[in-house]
Design a protein that fits this description.
The chain is mostly helical. It has helices at residues 3-7, 14-24, 28-39, 43-50.
């Protein structure tokens, strides 16, 4: 199920993302930011979401 997201162009829904977070133990904030970085079409915001440490600088 999860490989479709890794190998395809679709992004997981919030419900599927919650399952991925539960199984993997990834920090939920970082997981959501990574997915939203892919959903956003603004390159500046997308880059900030991919590099969350830059948000606090």
């Amino acid at each position: 199920m999860f490989s479709a997201y890794r190998n395809g162009r679709r992004l997981p829904s919030d419900e599927v993302l919650e399952k991925i977070i539960d199984i993997s133990g990834v920090d939920p904030v970082l997981a959501y930011m990574a997915v939203y970085a892919e959903r956003i079409h603004n390159p500046i915001v997308s880059n900030a979401f991919r590099n969350p440490t830059r948000l606090t600088s």
